[in-house]
Sequence to fold (1132 residues):
Amino acid sequence: MDLIVTLACNDHPGIVFAMTNAILQCDGNIIENQQFTDPATNTFVMRTRFETIQEFAQVEKTMKSAIKDESAVITLREYSQKKKVLVLVTKESHCLQELLYLQEIGEMEIEIPLIVSNRNELSGHATDHNIEFHYLPISQNEGESKADFENQLRAFIAKHEIDLIVLARFMQILSDEFCQEYAGRIINIHHSFLPGFKGAKPYHQAYDRGVKIIGASAHFVTGDLDEGPIIAQDVAHVSHSATPDDLIMIGRDIERRVLSRAVRNYAQDRIFIVGNRTVVFHD
Amino acid sequence: MDLIVTLACNDHPGIVFAMTNAILQCDGNIIENQQFTDPATNTFVMRTRFETIQEFAQVEKTMKSAIKDESAVITLREYSQKKKVLVLVTKESHCLQELLYLQEIGEMEIEIPLIVSNRNELSGHATDHNIEFHYLPISQNEGESKADFENQLRAFIAKHEIDLIVLARFMQILSDEFCQEYAGRIINIHHSFLPGFKGAKPYHQAYDRGVKIIGASAHFVTGDLDEGPIIAQDVAHVSHSATPDDLIMIGRDIERRVLSRAVRNYAQDRIFIVGNRTVVFHD
Amino acid sequence: MDLIVTLACNDHPGIVFAMTNAILQCDGNIIENQQFTDPATNTFVMRTRFETIQEFAQVEKTMKSAIKDESAVITLREYSQKKKVLVLVTKESHCLQELLYLQEIGEMEIEIPLIVSNRNELSGHATDHNIEFHYLPISQNEGESKADFENQLRAFIAKHEIDLIVLARFMQILSDEFCQEYAGRIINIHHSFLPGFKGAKPYHQAYDRGVKIIGASAHFVTGDLDEGPIIAQDVAHVSHSATPDDLIMIGRDIERRVLSRAVRNYAQDRIFIVGNRTVVFHD
Amino acid sequence: MDLIVTLACNDHPGIVFAMTNAILQCDGNIIENQQFTDPATNTFVMRTRFETIQEFAQVEKTMKSAIKDESAVITLREYSQKKKVLVLVTKESHCLQELLYLQEIGEMEIEIPLIVSNRNELSGHATDHNIEFHYLPISQNEGESKADFENQLRAFIAKHEIDLIVLARFMQILSDEFCQEYAGRIINIHHSFLPGFKGAKPYHQAYDRGVKIIGASAHFVTGDLDEGPIIAQDVAHVSHSATPDDLIMIGRDIERRVLSRAVRNYAQDRIFIVGNRTVVFHD
Fold:
């Protein structure tokens, strides 16, 4: 059996010793091990992949009692057990399409039981991949309607035992309440520029400013839409001859790549939130 | 004779025809030719390198009268004639060092007749390269002192026929008046982050925010220090394990590369300012 | 009418003048213009996009007689007229999928009238996009069978007026005769490593050698499969922890991006072959 | 006291446990810890940085006996103790210059007690940094002369307790005997292309082939000059307009960056050789 254990706790001497001792007791052989202590928050995080012939329940008991510290959060799962992902979309297909494609060719080890949208345009993508698609419009009378929308999401999340919610160019803002309820489980993607731009038509602003680089950031969603811990970022160089439409096209390409990288890292338990930052153990 | 002619003017049909006609009259053979029309400002810009056996004065007369349009700005110079650069520094050496080094090994075709600083720390770099160094302190009573400083700069610029002023980590803000006087002739370098940060200790802010990319921008200086037209930008990827000091170190590396690229493009007449943007004809 | 004219000819003074003169006679207004003289072959190449209110036939007549030189090859087409592409595939979908996706969202201005494969696995991709799919097996008795295969390709190419043949991970070698017949019209994609590896299982060889970078090259196909003029290349950084399977996965990602870039440049008439090199006018 | 311990040994269960147990016995607090098992050679490698108040000798005793396995190679040093580097150069200054500069501004934690060259051109760089420079010509009667040269190197290495020999564009080939004697302690830098080129004037070959990417590799030197384990690689994109001289200039820039990265990783004990590959623990 191939297992992934993760640990986050307050840092103190002896943690790695205790964890590796527990793994030894499980007859475990370590395949990968990564750890990091975040100095700002004094948080120790660790991700270990190991093989064992013991049963899961027994291993779980040993590992979960390895660290006595009350701050310790320990997770254990079989490496082959895929995380369940709910994808929220609106009209633009590039991020959804990339996730579906990578999953299909075995390069994104997630399960997507359903896709939810506030519009109907992308239902065909779900159909092509035999995935449930739910069209849940959010009406003008937004407050009420969004509350309904989020309640239906809650029901889907519970029913399908969703691990992660991916906002794949979902153009609605989720309520603070919802975001806090699923803190650390919602990933969003958005463009990033040097310098940054606020407000409408960011690519047009970037064009007017003559930027030579455009980028995208994938981040966890907290109450404030664009401000959660960053997971992944990337950029592309652009020249003076790129029109706003060219920038939008290049932006889409960066967005789908950065979002995929973030989701893949989540799928492999490589991301830890420490304060307002993330630790991402790259392979 | 190997010549570079540049043209900026309002766009209208027939400009390329007129310019190439003029070059033909000069018995010129085009080696490189690049042009671009900026749609936002309707500005046509063109850079042509050509060889001719005619005399400079004769060619200049022909070329400068090629375009009748009053908006036309035409420059002509021998390719081998280097631009004169005044470098302003404070304490940090990385940008200055890079410019001096590239110049020395023949990869940066500029002349640096003098280096000016508001501090004395970097005088050794000037001495090593046999370059005049002027230490012009700017006292606490800043207004007056800075006016003096800028007046001395003006004198140096006139005396040495300086083409370009490079702020190579010069930690003082030049007056709006000075910046406007030398508009399009002052290049600055500064860090850039995704998202951007205002205020002190930007690398510490970037660290706290957990950015995965840090960058630098070289730009022309207008009145507002960081907001002139961008010439070049680049970034580096950083991970959670990079400390603020690591970010600063990586930032220095990007800064010197981006500044050098901008200065080299200036040295080769590749940069045109159109509105708040630049056109940069890459080789 | 928005037109693209391209010219390739022996270099001599006055070409740009002659071309821009012809465009003026067409009442043309230049939108983009790029040119380059390849010193090794003394070949001048030029790509100009211009607008005119004259009729296509009249413009064509003027432009095609602009350069008297016998070496001149001039092409003219409407910007909106898409090139027709035949895609050849075998089993791997990543390159095909990317082309289809980009075309679908309007980021790849080509028409794909048909997909041909020596296997049947990817027929579903064609069906999903309402594209003809032809399964043409190449039997063990290869010589004869490949001749049949290529004859059927010739018929398809003629019938659909195909401009470009894209080998999107097509795992058969086309005959020298076929390649020469369609010289400059067949693009292939393959992995590239530093250093390079010959023979089977290149990713395993790269792994054994501990490379820190893997890459891909898109190139025109001449008789010798991997050795035609290079159009586009890119790389990704890899670490010691990447397994051969990881390298293959990363390789697929680079391949689809590099092939798309090459095909897009072809679609926009940006590529010229000069000797064994290409000139690619980037936007 | 801030210490770095490294371990390389045959992989078996319990190694991390044993090492962290030993660190606990040293009253050590782990700051950084990285490990990897190379599947091809079944080699386990580990790098741990930890703080302790115990004395060095005592810690050394504990750590060096932590792993009983005969295959185990354990190193321990104070983090502040810099590695001693002998730099070999010929005529080109860019790599030497970069190392000296980075060392000077505190970004390369090495000591350079001496620079040795088979020519005299770069002695000024040594003088500027108050470093011993030895000009040891290698005459035409190469066999004898090179033996002398290498014997003098051996004497220098012994006298200055050199840890690492850096070939910073040293244009002579060291003997197999010498390379084997200092296996894992000699780093070289050379250009890399896609595809690779053998023989003279590689940049001209790359130009003729129309490559769109040029690169450099830093590697350990074994008997065969270019074929030791790769430590670091990087590339730059180039266009058709780059001349062979441009390629050479861009190549120099990549070379100095890649070599510096390799030397920095060596200085921080981040590199392990496993078979023909390296494990490099990036920070």
Observations:
- DSSP finds eight helices and 13 strands in chain D.
- The CA atoms of residues 210 and 240 of chain D lie 7 Å apart.
